[in-house]
Amino acid sequence: MEKASEWLLSFNSQESDHVNYLINQRKNKFNKTITASITGGKGGVGKTSISLKLSKELSKLGFKVLLIDCDSNLSNTAIKLGLPLNNTFYSLVSSHKSFDECLYKENNFHLLSACNGNLDLFDSSLNLEEIIIDIISTHEQTYDFIFLDCPAGLTKEALTLNAYCDHRLFVVTPDRSSITDSYSLMKVLKHKYGINENHLIVNMYQSHKQYEQVVKTMSETVESFLAGRTLILGGVEKLDIMQSRFDQFLLEEENNSTHKNFLKIIKKYTDELFRNFNTQKSFEKSKFEHEVQPFC
Ligand SMILES: Nc1ncnc2c1ncn2[C@@H]1O[C@H](COP(=O)(O)OP(=O)(O)OP(=O)(O)O)[C@@H](O)[C@H]1O
Ligand SMILES: [Mg+2]
C-alpha cells in the first residue's frame, strides 16, 4: 500500500492540499475499518478515559480494536491501564522496533502507547501526524476500529489527525471553556477541511438537565454558525469517587450505571455504523447482527 509519507512527498503544493489529498484518498477507499479520533480541544475532559473504555468494550463485543495514543510525549493510556511505561513509540518511529513489538495486546484490544518525556522524540523533527497516518494506512486491514486518543490543543498535529479520521468523537464537559474549545476546534476543521459532521459525548455532567443543556448548546451553535451536524452519542455522569480509584472503576467494574451508559453510547454508535455500512460499505455485518444485538 502506498504510504502517506510517499503521497505527501509526491505533492509540492500547499500544506492544506496535502491534508485534503489524504482525506480524499481515505473517503474514496472502499474501506471496512472505521477510524475515529477522540478529541475536544480542552485538556482534562476525559478523552483518554473514554478512548480506553470505548476501545475495550468494543473489543469485548468481538471487534478488533487498535487504540493509538497520539499524545506522543505525554502519554497517559499505559498509566491508566497500570502498565509499565516504555518509550517503544520512539523505537517504532525511529525504525528500531516493528509495529507488532510495540503493541500491548489484550485479546482483541491492541494499544500503541506513546512516550513520556522522551528526549530523543522531543529533539527530533519528526512529523508525527504523518507517521501516525502511515501506521494507520499500513495496518488498518487488521482492525475493525482504529481510535486515536488526541492531545488537547488546537495544534496542526491534532487538526490533521482529526481531519483524516472518518469520525471525530468530541468529548465535552458542562464547563463553558470545554464547550468553547470544542466549538473552536470544530470551526477550524470546518473552515480548513470542510468537515461538517462530528459526534458528541458529554462527560462529567451532574444532572440530566445539565446534559441536555450541553447537547442543546453544542448542536444549536454548530448548526447556526457552522451549518454543521452534531451526532449525539450520549453521556457519562461525573463520578464522585477518589481520582486514584477512577481508572479501575471505569475500566474494570461493570455492575454500575456508568458502564450501562457506555453500553448505550456504543449501541448508538454501532447502530449508526450498521445503518451506514448496510447501504455504503462492506463491513462485516454479522458482527453487528450477532454480537451487538444482546444489549438491544
Ligand atoms: N466522568 C468522570 N467523572 C469523574 N472524573 C472523571 C470523569 N471522566 C474523567 N475523569 C477524571 O478526569 C481526569 C482527566 O481525564 P483524562 O485523562 O481521561 O482526560 P483527557 O481529556 O485525556 O486529559 P488530557 O487533555 O490531559 O489528555 C482524570 O483524572 C479522570 O479521572
Ligand atoms: Mg488524554
Shape, per Cα inertia axes:
globular
Given helix and strand content, the structural type is alpha/beta
Gap from first CA to last CA = 38 Å
CATH class designation: Alpha Beta
CATH superfamily: P-loop containing nucleotide triphosphate hydrolases
Total of helices: 13
- The radius of gyration over CA amounts to 18 Å
The kinds of small molecule bound in this structure are: adenosine-5'-triphosphate, magnesium ion
CATH domain fold name: Rossmann fold
The count of domains is 1
The arrangement of helices and strands along the chain is: HHEHEHHEEHHEHEHEHEHHH
Q: What does the largest sheet look like?
A: 8 strands, mixed
CATH architecture: 3-Layer(aba) Sandwich
Polypeptide structure, described:
- It is a single chain.
- Helices cover 50% and strands 16% of the residues.
- By secondary structure, it is of the alpha/beta class.
- It has one domain (32-286): P-loop containing nucleotide triphosphate hydrolases (Rossmann fold).
- The protein has an 8-stranded mixed sheet with strand order 3-4-2-5-1-6-7-8, with helices on both faces.
- Helix 9 (176-193) links the parallel strand 6 (167-172) and strand 7 (197-205).
- The structure holds adenosine-5'-triphosphate (ATP) and magnesium ion (MG).
Note the topology.
Layout: H1 4-9, H2 15-28, E1 34-39, H3 47-60, E2 65-69, H4 77-80, H5 88-93, E3 104-106, E4 109-112, H6 119-123, H7 128-139, E5 145-149, H8 156-164, E6 167-172, H9 176-193, E7 197-205, H10 208-226, E8 229-237, H11 243-252, H12 257-280, H13 285-292
Parallel strand pairs: 1-5, 1-6, 2-4, 2-5, 6-7, 7-8
Antiparallel strand pairs: 3-4
Helix pairs in contact: 7-8, 9-10
